[in-house]
Design brief:
The complex is a heterodimer of chains A (244) and B (169). Chain A is α+β, with helices and mostly antiparallel strands. Chain A has helices spanning 3-15, 25-28, 32-41, 43-57, 226-238; strands at 78-84, 87-92, 96-98, 112-115, 123-127, 133-137, 149-158, 168-170, 173-181, 193-202, 212-221, 241-242. The termini of chain B are far apart. Classes of the chains: A alpha+beta (244), B mainly alpha (169).
Chain lengths: 244, 169
């Protein structure tokens, strides 16, 4: 190593600041242990979540997802990301994984987003009685631009109404895939199409009486060139893997 | 968080260093964080295999470099080339080193991605040529040639080489 190389090395070491954020294992994955602990504490709010989900599903058009196998994928590069606990999916690298800000508003919010849009999450803190602090955050994307995609992953216990009809089996688990209108799926402004994936994971050991866990993926996307995005979403659904 | 035989410890031990390396590669802290998280998630996906051979650090670093090199088409990490370098401070200026550092980092960020990866691994992470080759999945000869080209580029950048050697421009 000559003098120039030594100087490069020294200057590079001095040039890099401390990272502004610290990455934790929780950000990379949420483990089964913490999930169970949290959900045991929040089973009551989960009832409300189920009610909201039931209302939201009214009006859903029950139709199979059309597969556009002739359409080219929008991206030749793909990456596999851990979405939640042991759920991983493959997606185009141009789709960015966004974790929601920590919120004390409730356990019902999405656990992760995938989008090709610019993200900007704003949070507000409110103080209620007894100094109780409530943090609410808006979604990281507020409107879809043309050819945009925005996928929200939500997980909750469905202790009362496990789904009874399936049209797919994903990695050994029964699942329902539906094509929806953007309006029926309660998508962001700008969205023109939606696909919803529901996977039911029985977990008899975690909660008594055989309750299970619902994983719901709501994918909203926009035209005018929607076919490649639909192709990528279908490929993502095909890639769903539950690590064991 | 459940540790699952050391994964949390791996994240705690390596993430800061990986973030610094990733920043030199990507020129942006958010992108660097993304790169590290994706790399760790990929490591987690194969953790049962990796943790047994006690090479998790090396594996994660290699995943990060492979991911970085595979991101070449990703729009939001695209650099905007500039036709200038920061002015060199006059001799004796207390901010001299800071200016040189800024010039060097800007120059490194303008290197082709593979050359940049070699420079970062060799001169920031202080890896040997052999370890750099292992991290990038290439031969030692490739590391040498990429390193030679990168240093040649850095040496021939007028503002940078003069600033680094303390000569007047």
């Amino acid at each position: 190593m000559d003098e120039f190389e030594r100087r490069v090395s020294l200057l590079l070491h001095d040039a890099v600041d401390e990272p502004p954020t610290r990455i934790t294992a929780e950000q990379v994955l949420r483990t089964r242990t913490s999930k169970r602990r949290r959900w045991r504490m929040t089973l009551a709010p989960a009832g409300a979540v189920i009610a909201v989900a039931a209302i939201a599903t009214v009006g859903i058009m029950l139709a199979g997802v059309t597969r556009d196998t002739k359409s080219p994928a929008t991206s030749t590069q793909s990456a596999r990301s851990t979405i939640y606990v042991n759920l991983t999916v493959r997606h185009p690298v141009s789709w960015r994984l966004v974790r929601p800000q920590v919120s004390s508003a409730g356990p019902s919010g999405p656990v992760a987003y995938l989008t090709n849009q610019r993200t900007d999450t704003q949070c507000n803190t409110a103080f209620g009685t007894h100094g109780r602090r409530t943090v609410t955050c808006n979604p990281p994307v507020t409107a879809l631009r043309p050819n945009g995609v925005y996928i929200a992953f939500t997980a909750f216990f469905d202790v009362l109404h496990p789904p009874t009809s399936y049209n797919r089996v994903l990695d050994g688990h029964h699942a329902t895939v539906q094509s929806l209108s953007a309006q029926a799926a309660d998508c962001l402004p700008g969205a023109t199409h939606a696909i919803r994936l529901s996977v039911y994971l029985p977990e008899p050991k975690s909660i008594p009486r055989g309750s299970g866990q619902n994983l719901v993926m709501s994918a909203c996307y926009a035209g005018p060139d929607a076919a490649p995005i639909r192709h990528d979403i279908n490929a993502l659904i095909d890639s769903v893997t539950f690590l064991r | 968080v459940e540790d699952r035989d050391g994964f949390s410890e791996l994240v705690r031990r390596t993430s800061r260093g990986l973030q610094r390396t990733a920043w030199l590669l990507t020129a942006d802290w958010s992108t660097a964080e993304d790169l590290v998280q994706v790399s760790l998630a990929k490591t987690w996906a194969r953790w049962d295999t990796i943790r047994r051979n006690e090479a998790a650090d090396l594996y994660t670093r290699r995943v990060m470099m492979t991911t970085f090199l595979g991101w070449r088409r990703r729009r939001w990490v695209a650099e905007v080339p500039l036709g200038w370098l920061p002015d060199r401070a006059e001799r004796g200026d207390p901010f001299d080193d800071a200016d040189v550092r800024a010039a060097l980092v800007a120059a490194v960020h303008r290197l082709p991605r593979r050359q940049r990866a070699v420079v970062v691994l060799r001169y920031f992470d202080d890896l040997s040529e052999q370890a750099t080759a292992a991290a990038l999945g290439c031969t030692i000869g490739t590391v040498k040639s990429q390193s030679w080209r990168a240093l040649k580029t850095l040496r021939t950048m007028p503002g940078l080489s003069a600033a680094m050697t303390g000569e007047s421009v």
